[in-house]
Amino acid sequence: MREVISTKDAPQAIGPYSQAIKANGFIFTSGQIAIDPSTQQVVAGDVGAQTERVLRNLSEILEAAGSGLGKVVRCTVFLKSMKDFAAMNEVYGKYFSSAPPSRSTVEVARLPKDVLVEIDAIALE
Fold first, then answer.
1. Residue-range definition of the domain harbouring residue 50
2. Strands 102-107, 72-79: pairing kind
3. Which of 1, 15, 63, 82 has the most CB within a 10 Å radius?
């Protein structure tokens, strides 16, 4: 069983992908960037502000799937610069303060729309 998850409370896909897929008790989100769903524009600000928007977007998608950030088991964080790790981590820690999920963080050459951070997640239903 495979179910496409979509919500207007998170940015609409800007390519041929789904916001998330629910399958076999898991939710697999697509990578989220700092796009405000009400404007479909990248939010202004530093990596902290962008991380905040990304995690809010992930939260909305997971809630639409009947899950939530508390059920996340794995995240991947993509940073434009590892120099932003501490600032991203500070915001990330506010959303995952208790029993945080496993995570990988990597620096990448470029991200969609030249944002500073992108995060995807795998969660339980």
1. 2-124
2. parallel
3. 63
Query: pLDDT by residue (tens digit) across 22-77?
Result: 999 999 999 999 999 999 999 999 999 999 999 999 999 999 999 999 999 999 99
What is residue 39's DSSP assignment? T
pLDDT for position 64: 98
The CATH number given to whatever domain includes residue 76 is: 3.30.1330.40
- 115: number of Cβ within 10 Å: 20
- The number of folded domains in the chain is 1
pTM recorded for the entire structure: 0.96
CB 66 within 8 A of CB 58: no
pLDDT digits (tens, 9 = 90+) for 86-96: 999 999 999 99
Q: How far is CA 95 from CA 36, 59, 71, 75, in A?
A: 18, 9, 12, 12
Q: Tell me the three-class secondary structure of 74-124, residue by residue.
A: EEEEEECCHHHHHHHHHHHHHHCCCCCCEEEEEECCCCHHHCCEEEEEEEE
Pairing of strands 41-42, 26-29: unpaired
